[in-house]
Each structure stands twice: as structure tokens, then as C-alpha cells.
Write a structure and sequence with these properties.
It is a single chain. The mean pLDDT is 96. Strands 1, 2, 3, 4, 5, 6 and 7 form a 7-stranded mixed β-sheet that branches. The longest helix has 21 residues. It contains 3 helices and 7 strands; from the N terminus they run ββαβααββββ. The N and C termini lie far apart (39 Å). By secondary structure, the protein is of the alpha+beta class. Pfam families: AA_synth (PF06684). This is Amino acid synthesis family protein.
């Protein structure tokens, strides 16, 4: 059921964002995995088996992204996921990535209590997907509200889905708008 056409991994090394240079560069990575959509062009009432079938791919993708960011789970502070469904598919086909993509990252990162933020949309080949990102242990850590843009020039074709994962080694450079700081996480409930 799962036919992968390509996997694209990108890593940004952010040294500053208009302010002073950071003590250590922030790494922001994204992985796009382009798969054939077996439901393209038709309505299928029972799509849950594909979600199960995607679980090994979710783990493979999360492992590749973590490796591209240095293969140190303890350095990853934030994450996100998303899906871009080709024009012959439907929004619900992208939602199949919620469990395989999100739980794969949480498994690899060990303690990862916060829900993995997500974006899903239908779009043409070359469309842009802005993947939301927030802190992996507490969704309200304001310094880590961020995102990364994912696009693959020849994907998704009408009968494909682009599944995306994102991870970062920190929050926004020069974050200074207040709110809960990562050092002040206290409830360990995924929120605060």
C-alpha cells in the first residue's frame, strides 16, 4: 500500500535573525516524503488501514530527520508535522499522518509530552506547506512557536501525498516576547 517516490531532507543552520550571533547555531530540519495516494480520484470509506501501514515509514522518516540534525535526541527541543495532498485526493488522506508521523518523533525523542502541531492541506505540485512547530514538552513555551516551509518542486502530483516532519534544536533566535520559558516548564503535562 505504501509506495515512496522520494524523500527530501533539508537542514537550516541559523546563526542569527537580525540580532547578535547566537552562541551556537540553531538547527531547523524538515523531511518531505512523497508517496502514492492509493485513494486518489475516488472516495474510500475505510482509510484507517493505511494509517497503520504508514507507521514504519513514520519511524524511518523521523530517524532520517534526527540523523540529519546530528542524531542527538536530547538536543531536539521542538517539532511539528504536516501533509500536502495532491489534487486528486482529499484532506482526510493527509490526516493519516497524525499517528505515524507524530508518534514516531515522540518515540525517538524519549520525553516528548506535547501534542505535535500539524498542518494539512490539498494543493498542486510545487505548493508550499508551512509546518507549525512548538516545544516538544510544553505547548505553551512561546519562544518555540515557529514553523518551517516545506516544498518539493515536483510534488505532490495529483495522485500523491507529501508527508512532512520538522524538528529544531531550539526556539526562535532572539525570542523576547515573554510567556512560559523552557526553563520554567513545571507541570509536565504537555501544556505548561
Amino acid at each position: 500500500m505504501i509506495e515512496v517516490r522520494k524523500i527530501v531532507v533539508t537542514v537550516e543552520e541559523v546563526r542569527h535573525d537580525g540580532g547578535p550571533p547566537l552562541a551556537a547555531p540553531l538547527l531547523k530540519g524538515a523531511l518531505a516524503c512523497v508517496v502514492r495516494n492509493p485513494f486518489a480520484g475516488r472516495y474510500e470509506p475505510d482509510i484507517v488501514p493505511m494509517m497503520e501501514a504508514l507507521k514504519p515509514l513514520g519511524l524511518e522518516c523521523a530517524t532520517k530527520l534526527l540523523a540529519a540534525l546530528g542524531n542527538e535526541p536530547g538536543r531536539i527541543e521542538a517539532y511539528g508535522k504536516g501533509a500536502l495532498v495532491g489534487s486528486a485526493g482529499e484532506l482526510e488522506h493527509g490526516a493519516l499522518w497524525h499517528v505515524p508521523g507524530g508518534y514516531a518523533m515522540r518515540e525517538l525523542l524519549g520525553q516528548a509530552l506535547a501534542i505535535v502541531p500539524s498542518m494539512t492541506k490539498v494543493g498542486p505540485m510545487g505548493a508550499v506547506l508551512d509546518v507549525p512547530i512548538h516545544h516538544k514538552d510544553a505547548a505553551y513555551v512561546r519562544s518555540h512557536f515557529d514553523g518551517i516551509t516545506v516544498a518539493v518542486a515536483d510534488a505532490p502530483r495529483a495522485d500523491e501525498i507529501l508527508f512532512a516532519l520538522a524538528m529544531t534544536t531550539g526556539g526562535r533566535p532572539h525570542a523576547r516576547v515573554g510567556g512560559l520559558a523552557k526553563e520554567d516548564i513545571s507541570q509536565w503535562n504537555g501544556l505548561r
